[in-house]
Every structure is written in structure tokens, then in C-alpha cells.
Amino acid sequence: MQYISDPSLVSTEYAQYGLAQEIDAYKNRRVTSDLYTRSLIGPLFYMIASGLTIGLADYFQGRVWLMLIPGLAFLLLWWQRYHHVPPTPGADHEEYVRWNRQQWYLIHLGALIWSGIATSTACIELHTSNAVIVTMITTIAFSTAASHSFAMHPQQARLCIIEFVLPPTFIYLFYAVDLRAIGIAICIYFVYLMMNLHGNAKEYRKQIETEVMLIQSRAELAQLSLTDALTGLPNRRSYEATWNHIWRIAARKNDVLGLLIIDLDFFKKVNDQYGHLAGDACLKHFAQILRQQIRRDSDVVARIGGEEFVAILPGVTNELAYSMAENLRHVLAEMPCEIATQKIYLTASIGAGIADWTKDKSPTDTFQRVDKACYQAKEQGRNVVKCA
Ligand SMILES: Nc1nc2c(ncn2[C@@H]2O[C@H](COP(=O)(O)OP(=O)(O)OP(=O)(O)O)[C@@H](O)[C@H]2O)c(=O)[nH]1
């Protein structure tokens, strides 16, 4: 099912289904775009750090060209990450899951290659040489960056930090006496990083929740702006958007499209006689009858003025529109609005008609013809159905 972004065109359940989908899509887009941008630059830093390490390592003296090997590997990794763009909007959930998995393969690959360089440097040098210091500082920097940048997937980020820190630290602790104290310090920092990642993941989740709440409030406001507060029916604004939409689809397909315009009779008298609150109760009472009588999924009812209502009836012929209007008129006349001990009887004048594709050039043309019929029903004494 496709989500229609204009809430005036959808039922409440459909709108809620659409909203849930919109929220899921938003979360997927937000997470993947963050993961993409935040992981893009990493390989370039690995490239610089590996060049520095090989350039400074005693073991590689005179073989500076060796820098090219990790340099090219990281350049290739950057190229891969650059071209692994997130799925286009509208992609399904599975596609996002697949993309995330592949992106994490690329992130782990970078972390493992770097960790390999840091670990082998420690193994070869086994003392506080410049190359070892460079690998230590950059490893700390990379793992710190991972704890900040990858908070959207804390489990993967945790694994990534372990990949960075554990292998070289193992060598510092158990094979290089000179580096043991620094190894212990790195272990303490590792614990801090894990706690920091936990906090960052919480913050990230909260941020997304806040954004989701904003999306929900926006949708609720949109829904409210299209609903009549008294009766709960769609209001005039909603009706206009819906009527135009349905009319144009029906016109394109040459489909039958019925319309009822219903105006309650002598409503001013109801207010004058029983009070405004009783008048409000009568409007709600009628709205309920309207909902009960016009109830096919494709029908739309709305309150478009003080005591004026419409029913849009796709696929309904002139005869059927007339008999539905007659039925509605009878039910209303026989079902009074009961307030305390009082019974207020209401009647309505109704214009019934269908879109005439040979005459009507716009939704307004159809509306005006049916509205004229409603006016004629008033002129004929009210409590009457008149065909357009
Ligand atoms: N209680 C209440 N009255 C409303 C509301 N909106 C409009 N009205 C009243 O509806 C009445 C409409 O009066 P008119 O337009 O003269 O129509 P009418 O008295 O129904 O007479 P006809 O339509 O000619 O039969 C006015 O008195 C409005 O104040 C509302 O939300 N609540």
C-alpha cells in the first residue's frame, strides 16, 4: 500500500498506517545517512596514520615505498565507502538492513586493517619508538571517534572499538615490558570508551525519539486542521481537497460520482428555542445519523458549514443518490435528538445529483448544480429531496 502524504485524502486508520510507515522510513533514512557520512572520512585518516607509522618505523628504514601498500588499501576502502550510498527514499526495510550490514563490513574491515598495522608495529618494535607512539595515539583517536560516531548501532560500535584496542594492547601488556604501563592506561581508557558509547547510544536514541515525536505532532496538527471540532467529521477544507481529488479521478475514468448536499431546516429556530448548546447537540446527533446512513468505505461525509453537510458517493447513480437522500431524510425526521426530557425533531433539505461529464468542467460545477437543487428543496417548503 502506498502512503498518501495529503492527510485530507485519507481515513484516520489509513492515515495512522501511513504515519507509522513514514516514521519507520524516517528512522531508516536518518540512521543510514548518519552511518554513511560518519564513516566516510575514516579511511583517509587510516591512510595518513599508516604512512606516518611506516615512515617512522626503524624496521622499514629505506623502504618508504612500503607506505603505498596500506595507503592504496585504505584509498580503495574509502572509494568503496564513498560509492556505497544509502538506499533511495522509498526503499523497503529489508533494503536498509542489507545496506547497514554491508556498511558495517566495510567499517570492520578498516578497523581490522588498522589494528593489524598497530599490532605488527608493536610486535616488531617492542619499545616506545616513534612509530609505536603514533600507532597508540591514532588507535586511541580512532576508537574514540567510533564511540562518538557510531552510537546508532552500539553493538557494532563496541565490536569495532574492541578490534581497534585489544590486539595491540595485548602485545603492549604481555610482550613489550617497556609498553606495559601504557597498555594498562589504554585498558582504563577502553573501559571509559565503553561507558561513553553507552551514554552516546542513549543520547542518539533520545534524539531520534524527539524527532519522531515532532513528526507525530505535525501529523496530529494536520489531522486537527482538517477535522470539525464539534462533530468530528472532516471539515470544509478537508472536503474540498477530497472532493477535488475524487472528482478528477472519476472524470478521468468517466466513472459515476454522486453527491448529496444536506442543509438542516430552520436551525436558527432550534438555537433560539432550545439554546446554542442544544443546537450543538443536534448537529452532533445529525453527524452520527449521517455516519450511520452513509457508511461504505469509499463514501465521504463532511460538515462544510454551520448546518450544512455533504456526502461524496463514488459509484452512486442518480437514482441511488436520490433514494439514499430520501432514506436519510426519513431517518432524521423520525429520530429526534434527545436532550434530558426534551426531544428535538429535525428535518433537512437535500440536493442529490451526480457529476455530469458532458456539462461539468470542474468539481465546482458539479457542486453548484447540486447546491442549486438543495436551494430548490428549501424553496419547495423544506424537508424535501431535490435532484440536480
Ligand atoms: N448551535 C449551533 N448553531 C450553529 C452552528 N453553526 C451555525 N449555527 C446556526 O445555524 C443557524 C443557521 O441559520 P440560517 O442560515 O438562517 O438557516 P436556518 O435557520 O437553518 O434556515 P434554513 O436553512 O433556511 O431552513 C444560525 O442560527 C447559526 O447560528 C453551530 O456550530 N452550533
From TrEMBL:
Its EC number is 2.7.7.65. It is an enzyme of class 2 (transferase). One of its GO terms (molecular function) is diguanylate cyclase activity. Residues 255-388 form the GGDEF domain. The chain crosses the membrane at residues 35-57, 64-82, 102-124, 131-150, 170-195. It catalyses: 2 GTP = 3',3'-c-di-GMP + 2 diphosphate. It comes from the Bacteria. It holds the Pfam family GGDEF. Keywords: Membrane, Transmembrane, Transmembrane helix. The keyword Transmembrane applies. GO terms for biological process: cell adhesion involved in single-species biofilm formation; negative regulation of bacterial-type flagellum-dependent cell motility. GO terms for cellular component: plasma membrane. PANTHER family: DIGUANYLATE CYCLASE DGCM-RELATED (PTHR45138:SF9), REGULATORY COMPONENTS OF SENSORY TRANSDUCTION SYSTEM (PTHR45138). NCBIfam families: GGDEF. This is diguanylate cyclase. It comes from Undibacterium jejuense.
